[in-house]
Backbone:
């Protein structure tokens, strides 16, 4: 091409590369290079351009779940839909890091997270994330965005659902119907998503002027074993008319609660109301739609991609804090909540 245009190879590179250096090139010279390129059928090599820019236009997705969430029924699938659509719109390809899946190296294994450096930046999925490997990546300035609120490590950017506000809204709805005895069942872990739901639940009780005695929040490591028909009947006898459960990856709290209420012979919502802080698992879709809220998973995935690509386009200055943000959840009326039944005076 240089020979055909009668110029040096350096001049060809400057013209075809957009002359970002600002070197003065005569318009006639530039026209000869472009004409030679058209004559030879030159097409820019995207791979070469990316290598020259030390970028490959790849966004990583690393999941800390037991299996990578590619099945449609998986609760994380909608996150990936939003991620894929937004990445494509922004001209990025995706690489899925499956080392934490069954049979893989495991997310906590030495060096497992270092593989994400193959991408320009990486999105993180999962309730429980190993802090130390992430801290090293953050300290190195590698662009990371967690889908889900994170308190650790400091300096990690994240996008999360506003579980606290949504949970408080569900409690306010129950209080507005006349419920005075409301109880939350959650799994026994310290994931930020669970903590946010509990905080919103308690704040919702306070805003409605409802009491929060000991036992208002029940943390259980084994929902199926600890939440049974006898337990539900005892709580109902104490005046609880509305039971609330959190959504998790497994859905164990909601499964145990609905099963226990059915075993106790209580009719929903005529005798007792049930609410779910999230959406039911796909395999429970045939059951009556629970009152609660919907998590905007696709929107969260897309928002995380936008934040990550913004970080890639404009890296943070040393000492600058990364962005973080909450996305609102939509209230779901459902059919599992009604005013509490009138009880005869003792």
Residues:
């Amino acid at each position: 091409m240089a020979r055909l245009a009668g110029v040096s190879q350096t001049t060809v590179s400057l013209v075809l590369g957009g002359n970002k250096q600002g070197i003065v090139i005569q318009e006639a010279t530039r026209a000869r290079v472009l004409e030679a390129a058209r004559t030879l059928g030159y097409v820019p090599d995207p791979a070469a351009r990316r290598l020259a820019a030390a970028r490959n236009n790849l966004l990583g997705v690393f999941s800390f779940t037991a299996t990578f969430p590619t099945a449609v029924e998986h609760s994380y699938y909608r996150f990936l839909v939003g991620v894929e659509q937004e990445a494509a719109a922004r001209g990025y390809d995706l690489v899925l890091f499956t080392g934490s899946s069954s049979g893989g190296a495991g997310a906590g294994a030495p060096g497992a997270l270092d593989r994400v450096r193959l991408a320009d930046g990486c999105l993180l999925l999962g309730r429980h994330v190993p802090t130390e490997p992430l801290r090293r990546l953050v300290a190195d300035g590698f662009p990371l965005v967690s889908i889900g609120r994170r308190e650790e490590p400091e300096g990690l950017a994240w996008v999360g659902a506003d579980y606290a506000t949504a949970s408080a809204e569900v409690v306010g709805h129950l209080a507005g119907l006349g419920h005075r005895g409301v109880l939350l069942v959650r799994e026994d872990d310290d994931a930020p998503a669970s903590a946010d739901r509990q905080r919103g639940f308690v704040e919702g009780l306070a805003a409605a002027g409802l009491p929060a005695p000991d036992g208002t929040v029940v943390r259980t490591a084994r929902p199926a074993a600890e939440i049974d028909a006898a337990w539900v009947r005892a709580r109902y006898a104490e005046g609880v008319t509305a039971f609330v459960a959190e959504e998790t990856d497994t859905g164990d709290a909601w499964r145990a609660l609905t099963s226990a209420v059915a075993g106790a012979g209580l009719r929903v919502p005529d005798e007792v109301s049930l609410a779910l802080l999230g959406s039911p698992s796909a395999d429970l879709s045939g059951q009556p739609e629970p009152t609660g809220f919907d998590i905007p998973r696709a929107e969260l995935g897309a928002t995380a991609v936008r934040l990550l690509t913004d970080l890639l386009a404009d890296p943070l200055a040393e000492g600058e804090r990364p962005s973080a943000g909450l996305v609102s959840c939509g209230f779901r009326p459902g059919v599992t909540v009604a005013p509490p039944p009138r009880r005869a005076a003792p």
About this structure: The first strand starts at residue 58 and ends at 63. The chain has three domains: 2-44, 58-162+297-330, 163-294. Residues 66 and 329 are 26 Å apart (CA to CA).
